[in-house]
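User: I'm putting together notes for a lab meeting next week and I want to include a structural view of one of the chains we've been expressing. I don't have a solved structure, so I'd like a prediction I can at least talk through. The sequence is below, exactly as it appears in our construct file.
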Amino acid sequence: MPPTQTYYQPAAPALPLPVPGKSPYRHPALQPVIYKHISLSPPEAGSSVNTSAVPSLTSGSYSGSSSGDHESSNGGSAGVDLMELMHDRLGNAINPMPLDRSLAKQAQTSGELNAKHRELLELQALAQRRLKSTRANFADGMKAAKEVRRDLEWTQKRVSTLKTKTERKYPSAYQAANRRYPAPIDC
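Assistant: Thanks for the context. Below is the predicted structure for the 187-residue chain, given as structure tokens.
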């Protein structure tokens, strides 16, 4: 098995999002990704065996010999934890600032929407109270208008009756008063 092989695989092109007020940011998709295969021999029977579920690649049993293996020929990358290296690469691959900003904006918009919803509910309750009081006032006004109409009809009937009685009882005086004070003409 060859000790080291290096592959360059171009990542899928993606355009970086512009973030104002930040230092220039290079999107990791635009940088070549380097994959390295590390050839390691299994631990020997006399050496200590790692009993954890995930074996550490930097432990003594997997470190290999220092004469001619991958780490020594690669320029001294011994002691580098691959999990830490993967964590650092993945951490740098995603910029959390746009997500944080969008979450903050979403929370702010949700708060404003809830406030407007509560305000609309309050205004709706106020409008219902006003409508109820307006209906009560309108009903009272209609009742008063019917009473006034009934009183006017009674008064008109009473005046007509008095006019007829006066005309029969005092015809000459009624004619003189009628000439002197003529009745208004209805339009």
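A couple of points you could mention at the meeting. The first helix runs from residue 70 to 73. The first strand starts at residue 6 and ends at 9.

User: Perfect, that's what I needed.
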